[in-house]
Write a structure and sequence with these properties.
9 helices; single chain; 6-stranded mixed beta sheet; 11 strands
């Protein structure tokens, strides 16, 4: 299975469409999926447009081919802390908004994680201390809100985690880095902080070969550990 994934779209429809332009042609192929890791709303100016685009993709290809996971911002809406359009619920009157109900009905059915092959796809992370019992040992709020991001080898679990939630600039310690982050062991992070960077990274996982690729307009490139990437690109920039 080849799984394309992206995360933390945050209402940025134009950037989402650009990322999708590198993916949707492949969805016609067999054994190919798109997994979206949550936080579709808040930040950009078209949260509803992003949700509509995801629903359109699921209608066209099926919800088993286009999987959308729960993010903490979707949880905020379901808990009544915010509206689809605003983090500040009081800034928007939703009392007679049938569209809001349509979106919240959709959000209620979003799974918190998805597994395929050697990979766990999730918005924020898992309880790594639970090892191979992570599915039962991870509290719901950890799947969507785990912070800070963990790096390194997950002891007792021979799987990789692909997550968003925390920007790769923060994880890498490089304010200019908004690409796929790999720690060289068990974690791939793909939140490119689109509000600041205009970038939604796309990762492709070949679950049969257990190889992870960065998807760009010029092709797919195997992802290397950040330290290796940083070293190569530092030399190039001199």
């Amino acid at each position: 299975m080849k799984i394309y994934c992206m995360s933390d779209i945050h209402g940025c429809l134009a950037e989402f469409d650009h990322a999708l332009s590198m993916v949707t042609g492949h969805l016609e192929e067999e054994d190919t999926m798109l997994i979206l890791l949550g936080d579709y709303i808040h930040g950009g100016d078209d949260s509803r447009g992003v949700l509509d685009r995801i629903m359109e993709l699921q209608y066209r290809y099926g919800s088993e081919k286009v999987v959308a996971l729960m993010g903490n911002h979707e949880e905020f809406v379901l808990a009544g802390f915010s509206s689809v359009d605003s983090m500040n619920k009081s800034a928007y009157n939703i009392s007679d908004d049938t569209d809001e109900e349509r979106y919240t009905d959709w959000m209620q059915n979003l799974p918190r994680y998805y597994t395929e092959g050697n990979t766990i796809f999730v918005h924020a992370g898992i309880d790594e201390e639970a090892g191979d019992m992570w599915e039962w040992g991870t509290a719901e709020h950890i799947f969507t809100g785990k912070y800070p991001a963990e790096t390194g080898k997950i002891e007792g679990l021979d799987m990789k985690v692909v997550a968003g939630h925390v920007g790769t600039a923060e994880i890498s310690g490089d304010s200019g880095f908004h690409d796929v982050y790999f720690d060289g062991q068990s974690h791939y992070y793909i939140d490119g902080s689109v509000i600041d960077s205009g970038v939604i990274p796309v990762l492709m996982v070949d679950t049969e070969k257990d190889i992870y690729y960065r998807v760009t307009e010029t092709g797919c490139w195997p992802v290397t550990a950040f330290e290796e990437w940083w070293g190569v690109n530092t030399v190039k920039s001199k």
